[in-house]
Write a structure and sequence with these properties.
This protein is mainly β and about 210 residues long. It is built from no helices and 21 strands. It has a single domain, classed as YVTN repeat-like/Quinoprotein amine dehydrogenase (Methylamine Dehydrogenase, Chain H, 7 Propeller). InterPro entries: WD40/YVTN_repeat-like_dom_sf, WD40_PAC1, WD40_repeat_CS, WD40_repeat_dom_sf, WD40_rpt.
Length: about 210
């Protein structure tokens, strides 16, 4: 397991052992996102200043990706390899990275506020993003442009997830609801009631979504 936090350190843990077995210093601000690559040899992390780091755990060293101007809270990998990485930031932009070349190959702009979640589609053709202003956008990687945009709701979108086989996508909201979109018809088809404990402003935010593989 890998963790990152306000102490600016990446820590690696083995289940069953109470102490972390590796600490990786190198970030200069609070870490907001950590993620294993497809192999256990590499970990990616992103911090409050927008710096993304790729850690080689065998060598305990890192390379940095620079471009975002504010916090990066969400990362996702291309489904067939970790050659390509997508990131979403509080600077309202989404960036597609070629990890081998250590460069940003495309910047997507369309959100008016923080980007809370980014996800590759199962076939790697699209990127979905969830914005704090409420919009959910799908970007076509091959055409390098905005492909679909759902703006029916202004409640902040907190997370997005593609269905593994069907042309469906779910988006969680800050009010505790989940929207389900039909991507073939390009429309919102259903919305759950707020399923989580009500707070001062209604339901509690939905932070993550997973579809049953079947």
């Amino acid at each position: 397991m890998v963790t990152g936090g306000q102490d600016r350190n990446i820590k690696l843990w083995t289940f069953g052992d109470e102490k972390c077995f590796m600490t990786l210093p190198g970030h200069n601000s609070s870490i907001d996102c950590v993620k294993f690559a497809y192999s256990d040899d590499f970990v990616y992390s992103a911090d409050d200043t927008g710096v993304i780091k790729r850690w080689n755990l065998n060598a305990s060293d890192s390379t940095s990706l620079f471009g975002h101007m504010k916090s990066v809270r969400t990362l996702d990998f291309y489904p067939y390899s970790d050659t390509y990485l997508v990131s979403g930031s509080n600077d309202t932009s989404i960036r597609l990275w070629d990890v081998r070349e250590k460069v940003c190959i495309k910047r997507y702009r369309g959100h008016m506020s923080h980007v809370n979640s980014v996800k590759f589609s199962p076939d790697g053709s699209w990127i979905a993003s969830a914005g704090a202003e409420g919009s959910v956008i799908i970007w076509d990687i091959r055409m390098s442009k905005l492909f679909m945009e759902f703006t029916e709701r202004q409640t902040p979108a907190t997370c997005v997830k593609y269905h593994p086989t069907d042309l469906l996508m779910a988006a969680g909201r800050s009010d505790g609801t989940v929207d389900l979109y039909d991507l073939e018809k390009r429309q919102l088809i259903t919305q759950t009631p707020a399923l989580h404990s009500p707070g001062a402003g209604g339901g509690q935010p939905v932070r993550c979504i997973t579809f049953d593989e079947s």
